[in-house]
Design goal:
By secondary structure, this protein is of the alpha+beta class. It has one domain. It is built from four helices and three strands, in the order αβααββα. It has a three-stranded antiparallel beta sheet with strand order 1-3-2. α2 (22-29) packs across α3. The protein is globular, with a radius of gyration of 13 Å. It starts with a helix and ends with a helix. 8% of the residues are buried.
């Protein structure tokens, strides 16, 4: 782990622990709601459920993007 991952952010969470909402992921990936839920349903993008709310760890989004880039490069 690097120093940035260990340093707390303004909200008290480390950057690697930040949780994103579906709309935030939609904006980041520039995809629609259905496409993001398809990625979640298929397991390509990891998430957790808190009550009725779905949250995506920031590191899961980073891992998803990295994996897709590696697949495209192969």
């Amino acid at each position: 782990m690097n120093a940035q991952e260990l340093a707390p952010t303004r909200r008290g969470l480390r950057a690697s622990e930040e949780l994103l909402t579906v709309p935030q992921v939609m904006a980041h990936l520039q995809l629609g709601r259905s496409a993001v839920y398809d990625l979640l349903r298929s397991g390509q993008l990891a998430s957790i459920t808190l009550g009725r709310a779905r949250r995506i760890p920031a590191h899961a989004l980073t891992d998803f993007i990295r994996t897709r880039l590696e697949q495209e490069a192969a």
